[in-house]
Amino acid sequence: MIQSPIDANLVIFLGSEGINWVTEDCGATIKALNTGKNIKEFLFHPYERNWVLASAYTSCDDFTDEPCKIYKELYVSQDIGGTWGFVADYVIQFSW
Amino acid sequence: MRNRRILLLCFSLLLLQHALAIDEDRSIASPSQSTAKAAYRLLDSEKKSDNLPDANTSVEFGLSFIDSPLLDIIWCGSDKQTILVLSDKGTVYSTKDLGKTWNKLREIFQKTGKKTAKDEEDVMINLLAMCSNKKKNELMTGR
């Protein structure tokens, strides 16, 4: 569980198989999100409530016609994980 | 005889001067003593305002059990009254009354997760991050 630094009611639950959950009312209602990636790290923006960064490792399923390469990818969302945009690959560390 | 009277008078004056000096000392010492007492009173009132338990005060407590060892806790909401707890098996528990009653949220997570997953596979929660604000409430955890 990761709590937003600016909204104490907003918590993200990182799950397996690309499924994550978000609650905006401390667990009273829970919404599942399918990112399609197993998120390893998750970072809320310090001032923008809905902005998040997330990293995920590639899997061999991502490479069909080429050798499997495992590295970390960085994604950004501006709607608390509803939609994601690719930022960079081969990422070691990241921050807002 | 006259010398004795003069000597007695001088002695009396000395006694009087000494008595006045003691009074002066008291008049200086008194405010500082009262200030010290006031400071002690202030400390006592601060202790009371912090709700520090006295030695004779009993502490109310209860026992709650979860399905596996505790992984993480979040104090949620602006008033920090709701607590979310994650167990080692990926079960989330929530309480709105500081731990008196607990709700198990595992089924809600699995139900919503399966609906969202493409092939309806089993999903579970992997990670919890610690809440930064633990100043107001303390919770003891153990295995």
Name the descriptors.
heterodimer; A: 96 residues; mainly beta; 4-stranded antiparallel sheet; B: 143 residues; alpha+beta; disordered C terminus
Give a short synopsis of this structure.
Chain A is mainly beta. Chain A has strands at 2-3, 11-15, 19-23, 31-34, 39-44, 52-57, 72-77, 85-88. Chain A has one domain.
Describe the structure.
Helices cover 0% and strands 40% of the residues of chain A. With 96 residues, chain A is mainly β. Chain A has one domain (2-88). In chain A, the strands form two sheets. Chain A has a four-stranded antiparallel beta sheet, with no helix packed on it. Chain B is rod-shaped. The N and C termini of chain B lie far apart (96 Å). Chains A and B meet through β1, β2 and β4 of A and β1, β2, α2 and β5 of B.
DSSP strand count of chain B:
5
Beta content of chain A comes to: 35-45%
The major beta sheet of chain A can be summarized as:
4 strands, antiparallel
**What value does the Rg of chain B take, in angstroms?**
35 Å
Shape of chain A: globular
Mean pLDDT figure of chain A: 91
Q: What's the main sheet of chain B like?
A: 4 strands, antiparallel
In percent, how helical is the residue content of chain A? under 10%
Strands of the largest sheet of chain A, in order across it?
Answer: 1-2-3-4
List the helices and strands and how they pair.
The complex is a heterodimer of chains A (96) and B (143).
Chain A (H helix, E strand, L loop, with lengths): L1 E2 L7 E5 L3 E5 L7 E4 L4 E6 L7 E6 L14 E6 L7 E4 L8
Antiparallel strand pairs in A: 1-2, 2-3, 3-4, 5-6, 6-7, 7-8
Chain B lengths: L1 H48 L20 E7 L5 E6 L4 E4 L7 E2 L1 H11 L8 E3 L16
Antiparallel strand pairs in B: 1-2, 2-3, 3-4
